[in-house]
Amino acid sequence: MRRALAQKRPYLVLSVVAALAYHYLQITELPEAFLWPIKGSACAFLAFYAWLRHGSSDARLLAGAMAVAAIADMAMEFDMAVGAGVFILFHILAIRLFTRHNRGAMAGRDNVVLLALLIVPPFAGYWLPDDQLWSWLAAAYGAFLGVMAASAWASDFPRLRVAAGAILFVISDLLIFARLGPLEGSLIPEYLVWPTYYLGQFLIAIGVVTTLRKRDPELRVVPGSRETMH
C-alpha cells in the first residue's frame, strides 16, 4: 500500500512545480499558447491528486471541482468573463462539497466571519471596478464566491487549511476586482493574484483529502481489484 501511495503523491508535487513555473514564466516572452496549459495543469494535478488519494464521492466531487478550476484558469487568459463563468461552476461544486460537511450551529465570532464572507465579495465586486457593466458582473460572481467561502468556513473541514484556502481565493479575486478599478496598472495584482489563488486551491485540496482519509481510509489497491478499508 505504501508503494501505491508513493505513486500518487507526485501529482501534488507536479502541481506545485506547474504553479511556480507559471508564476515565473508569465513575465517572460514565452508565447501565451505555452503558458495556458502550464497554468491549467496546476489545478489539473490537484484534481488527479484528489481522485487518486481517496475513493469517496466527496473526493470525486473535489477532483471535479479542481478540473473545472483548471479549465477556468486557462479560459481567464483569453476572456475574463468566460473564465469567471466557468469558475461559478467550480464554486457550485465546492459549495456542494462543503455543505455536505456542515459543522452545525455556530455562534459569536464564527457568525461574524460567516456574514463577512457572504457580504464582502459581492459588495467589493460591485464597488471596485470602474466600469458599470463589470461592476454588476463582478457582483454576481462575487455572490457565488462569497457563498463558497462561507460554506468552507461553516464546514467541519479544518479551518486552517480549507477555510483559509477559501479566504485566500477570495483575496485573489478581490485583487482582480481592484485591478479593474483603483489598482489598474498596479504591480500588486500582477504579483499577488496567482500566488494567493493557487495557495488557496492547494490548501483546500490537501485539507479536504487529508480529512477524508482520516475519517474513512482510502481504497486499497490490490492486484486485479480494489477493496475498501472500513
Structure report:
Belongs to the TMEM86 family. It is found in: Membrane. It comes from Aurantiacibacter gilvus. The chain has 230 residues and is an all-alpha fold. The chain has one domain (2-227). The protein is built from nine helices and two strands. The protein has helices spanning 2-8, 10-25, 32-53, 57-75, 80-99, 109-127, 132-154, 159-179, 187-215, and strands spanning 220-222, 225-227. The protein has a two-stranded antiparallel sheet with strand order 1-2. β1 and β2 (225-227) form a beta hairpin. The two termini are 15 Å apart. Residues 1-6 and 220-230 have low confidence and may be disordered.
Counted up, domains total 1
* Average pLDDT metric: 89
Give me the Rg, rounded.
Answer: 18 Å
Low-confidence runs: 1-6, 220-230
